[in-house]
Amino acid sequence: MSRRYPLPVFPSARLTCPLPIRLALALIAASAAAFAGDRQAERWRVTDFTGALGGGPDGGPVAQAGGIPYALCGDAGGNLFLAQGQFIDVVTPDGMRSHLAGSGEYGFRDGAAHQAEFRLGLNSYYGAHNLACGPDGSVYVTDGGNRRIRRIHRAQGQWQVDSWAGGGSRRLGPGESAPPNAVVFSGTLAVAVTPQGEVTIADNFGAYRMTADGREIRYLARWPASAFYSNARPGNLNVMMGDADRAGNVYFVSRTPHAVIRITPAGQVQHVAGRVTRDKAHQLAGDGPPLEAFFNTPTSIAAQPDGSAVYVCGGDEYDIRRIPADGTGTTATLMQNGQWYQASVHPNKSRGPAVVKPGAKGKLKPDGDLTILMVSHLLGRDAQGNLYGSLNTWSGMTQYVEEEGLLGTRAFRLQRSTPGGNP
Amino acid sequence: MAAPALVAGEAVVVMSMPGDARFQLNPAVAHDGKGTYLVVWQQGRFYHQSQSADILAARIDASGRVLDRQPIVVCNIEASQEQPQVAFSAGTFLVVWHDLRNGRDWDVYAARVNADGKVLAPNGFLVAGGAGNQASPAMAPADDGFLVVWQHYDRHYQLRASLIPVAGPAAPAQPLQFRGEPLWGGELALARVGSGWLLSWNDEKAWSLTSGATTMITRHFAKLAIRNGKTAVLDVQRASTIHVGRSGGRFASDGGPSALYAGWAIVGRGNRAATAVLFDSDASPIRNPNPEQDKRASGWNTERMMTLFNLNVPVDGPVAAVFGQGMYLVAAREAYSGKPTDRNRLLGARLTPAGVRIDNASAWPVLHESPHRIASPALAGGNRHFLLAFEQEDAAGRRQIWAKTLKAE
Fold it and tell me: Which residue in chain B has the smallest CA separation from A118?
C-alpha cells in the first residue's frame, strides 16, 4: 500500500492567459471607479449554505446536510425551497432542511407531496430546471421530463403536488388562450411567478402567461428575432431558468443562443441583454451595454427583487454578471472582494482561483490582485435578494474565504450588504 | 467450465404493514452464521410537516421465510431515525443509525438485537452526540463487538470511531487521524479484513487542481487496526482512479485476506458504470485480472479497477456487495431512465476471490426482475446462500422491502 496522504491543500484553479489576453486585461485597470449608483455601494459576502464537503446526511441543519441543489427560490416567510435530484427540499427559517416533495425517483405522480414524482432535468438543455416561489406560499417547478409546470402547495393542512400547466396536446399560437392543462409545451421549460401570482412560462418557442387563479393560459409571443444568430432561422431558445422582480418584470435566460429576455407586466417580450454572436472578437467582449455584452452559455438567472438588476451565471460563465434592469449603463462582474467591476474583456479570460479576498483592492488581474469570484451555477435567490451559487467539480469544488477558511459546503450564500425587500 | 447457476428463491415482502403507508427504504442485512438473517430498514423519511422515519427489522431464515409476524421495532421514538446499518458479531446483531430526536441535529444511536429478535435496549443507546451532526455511521464486526465509524461535524466533517462490545457501553468516540492529521469527509464504507478493517470515504476538502489530476480524486481508503486499545489508522491512500467510488460504494469482505469495494459512477458523457477494486491483505489494490473494454474517458484506467458489467449496460447505485460461497457477488440496479416501460431488474456480477469475473458478459445473473420499480439492493452471505433485500413498489406505488435467497448450484 502506498503511503501517500495529502495534507489539506487549498484550491487554486488559476489558468494562465495568453499574452494578448494579458495585455487586454491590462486595459481593465481602474474600471471600478467608473461605476455609479447602487452597485458601487454593494458588498457581497460568501458564506456556507448547504451540500457539505464530502457528503452529509439528508436533511437536518442546512449547512451540515449533503446533496447539492440545482435550483432554489425563497418565499416571504424566509423559507427556501431547493431542487436536488428528484426531491424538492425546504429550509425553514431556523435552518433545518428536510424533504418537502418527491419520492426521489423519476416518474409522474400528483397528490401527496411525499409520494409525488417528477422528472426534473429531463427533456431539458444540460439538465436545466428551476423553481419559482409564489406569493401564496406555492412553489412552481419546471418538470421538463413530464412537460409540465408542477405546483407544490398546501391544501387542507397537507402538502400536495398538482399539474399547474401542460400535459395536454393543444399547441397555442401567439395571442391564443386555453385551459392550462390542455396545452403542450415544446422543448425546454422555465418558470417565473410575479408578486401578483401570475405564472409566466417559457418554452423553446415563446412565452406564456397564466392568470393568477390558474384557469387560463395565454401565449404571449414568440421569442424576438434579435435573440437569434443573424444567419439562423428564428425559432428555439434553450431557456434555462426564470425569475421576476417586485414590479412584475419577468426574466428568462437562454443558453445557445445566449440571451436574456424580459417580459413586461403588460406582456411585451423583449431581448434585453446578451449579444448573440458567433464572432470570436465579439465573444471576447467584456462588460458593456447589456445588449453588447457577451454571456458564455449561461445556465442561470436571478432578478434582484427591487428591480435594480438581473444576474446571470453558469456554463462557461464562471462568474456572476450583473445586468442593469433598466437597460442603461453597463453590465458588471462580481470580483473576489465582493464588489462589482467592469471587465473590458470577457471575465472568463481572467478566471482565478476559488478564493474570496474580501480585503482585496486595486486593479483587476493581471495588474492587481482581483479576479472573478468563481461560481459555476446560480441556484437562485431568496426574498431579500441574496444569491445562492455552487461550484461544480471541474471548476473548483471548494471555495476558500480569506480569514474564514475553506467553506464547509459546495453550495454557498452570497449575502448582499444592502438587501432589498420582498418582491 | 460453465459458471454455476445462481438459483433465486421466491421473493417475499418482508413485512406488510397495511396500517402504515410510509415507504420502506434503505434495507441492510446481516447473517448470524447459523442460517438466520436480520433485515433492517427505515420506515418513512424526514418530510417537512408530514412524516418522520423509524427503524424496523425482521428475521428471515435460510429458506427465505420471514420469522417475525410483527416488525421488530428497533427505534420508533418521535423524530426521524434514518440510514440503518446492521452487522453480526459474537452472537449479537448491532443496528446503528443516525437520529434527529434532539430536534437540532443528527446523533448516532445503536441497538443490540439478539438471535430471538429481541431489542435489548428499546430505542437504542447513544453512540455519539453533542453539538453538530454525528451522522452516516458505517459498521463492521470486531472481536467480540463492532467498530462503528461516523461523521462528526465541525464546519467540515471529521471521521470518528468507537468500539462497541457485544455487551456493555460503547468506547468513547475517538477522532481518526493519520500522522497527526484528522480524516475528513463522508460517504463511508467499512469492512473487516483480516485482523483489521478497510475504511473508504470521500474527502472533497483535499480537492486541488494545482497539484495535478490525481488530486481531483476525492475517494480515499485507509487501513485500520486496534493498537493499545484504540483504533489506529495505519495507512491512507487515494482511490486508484477517479472512477472508483465516485458516487459512493460498499465493501464486501470475507473477513479473510481480501475485500472488494464496489461502486458506480457516471463515466464520460452519461455512461453509468459499476466499478470495483479488490484489495489484498495489506489493503493494497490488486491489479485487475480481467480483460476490459476500452473507454475514452479522462482517468479511465482498467489496470487499477475493474468494470462489473458491460459499459453498454447502465447501472446506478447504491451497489451492494458480499462475499460467500467462495465468491464475491455484486448487485446493481439496471439504471431506470425515467420511462415507465423500462425493465426493472437487479443484475448480479460474480467474481472469484482473486477478482476474476465468473460470468460471461452476455449472461449476468438477473437477481430479480419486476414490472414495478425496484431500488437499493442489500446483500448478506450465508453458509450456502445469499440473502438479497431490496425496495420494490406495488401497483399503487407503495414501496416495501422484499427479500429472496440466492444459491449457487
Answer: B338
Q: How much is the pLDDT for B52?
A: 96
pLDDT at A70 over 90: yes
Question: Which residue from A minimizes the CA distance to B204?
Answer: A54
CB B338 within 8 A of CB A106: yes
Return left, alpha or beta for B213; rule: phi > 0 is left, psi -120 to 50 is alpha, else beta: alpha
Q: Is the pLDDT of residue B172 over 70?
A: yes
The closest CB to that of A408, out of B156, B282, B338, belongs to: B156
Q: Which of A39-43, B153-157, B393-397 has the highest mean pLDDT?
A: B153-157
State which H helix or E strand residue A20 sits in: helix A19-26
pLDDT tens digits along A344-362: 888 877 667 788 898 888 7
Give which of B134, B157, B160 is closest to B147, Cα–Cα: B160
* Nearest-Cα residue of chain A relative to residue B100: A60
DSSP B132-180: S-EEEEEEEEETTEEEEEEEEEESEEEEEEEEEESSSPPPPPEE-EETT
Say what the alpha-carbon torsion angle B292, B295, B300, B305 is, to the nearest 10 degrees: -20
The model scores a pTM over 0.95: no
Concatenating the DSSP letter of every residue in A179-224 gives -GGGB---S--EEEE-TT--EEEE-SSEEEEE-TTSS-EEEEEEPP
User: Do B205 and A122 make contact, defined as CB atoms within 8 angstroms?
Assistant: no
Beta bridge partners of B199: B190, B222
For chain A positions 9-48, those within 8 Å of chain B (CB to CB) are 9-14, 48
Tens of pLDDT, residues A359-412? 888 787 766 788 888 899 999 999 999 999 998 866 567 889 998 999 999 999
Upstream peptide bond of B318 is cis (omega within 30 degrees of 0): yes
